[in-house]
Amino acid sequence: MKKFTYILLLIFLSINLYSQNIISLGRSLKNLKPTYIERTIHVNTARSFEAIEVARYQSLNHHTNWTFTNTTTNIDVHIKRILAEHTLKSPRTIYGPYNYVRVFSKISKNEDLTTNKHLLDWKHINQTTTYNGAHHLINKYTLKLIYLEMKQEGINVSLTDMQKNAPAIFHPLHGDPQYKQYFHDYASQLYDYHHYGMKVTILNILANIDNIGIANGLPKMHNEYIIGILKETELWCKSYHLVWERHNSAIELKDYQIPTNVDEVRLFKE
Fold first, then answer.
1. Are 95 and 101 in contact (CB under 8 A)?
2. Which strand (E) or helix (H) includes residue 167?
3. pLDDT exceeds 70 at position 142
């Protein structure tokens, strides 16, 4: 009988139907608290490797699992994050498409789901006086400029979809006016994208954000966090015809000491 008290009622409290991701929340019949966040990545079979790599890295969190279904032309990768009491840890371990990341700030308002250690971090994220919430790593304005260039070249994508599915994170210094240039320097982002591609653009943004974080007493970003963001970005680029790497660019990752094998990557440590 105990099992039946935890039967999930599939109420789609937050559902975003975009071409790459579908996000939904499920609740428990017992207490009506959010019980899981499920994300479905829908891509053609040519993108199946990238989608599965995204799921593998998201599942380094041991409260997350993934499965997939496929046809001859498409693949749906399902990533489910279970939200038991006091299992939602630091906002700085959350990353993914914007429409996925922003759901975490919504459910973090239920304090029973958040670990006591990180309760104040989530309260800071959800302040209404300043914008500290989920934010695009690549500015929406930068994406609009890239979209207009693509349109001139005859590449047609949905700007709204591209922005909603763009890589996003949480950071406690986002929204602080003195660090605005680190988060919203569209000119530098556009320069890096045109010269090197989106991979270098993202790495430069992360390096700059990491440096100001360390200067303010925050821990250095974990290697697996950076790799996970890169994998999300690569899938997103290939889904929306953005340039991931330009052939004349060289990328140097030695400062991050990133392991090449996913099995060597440790779990997030708090």
1. yes
2. strand 167-169
3. yes
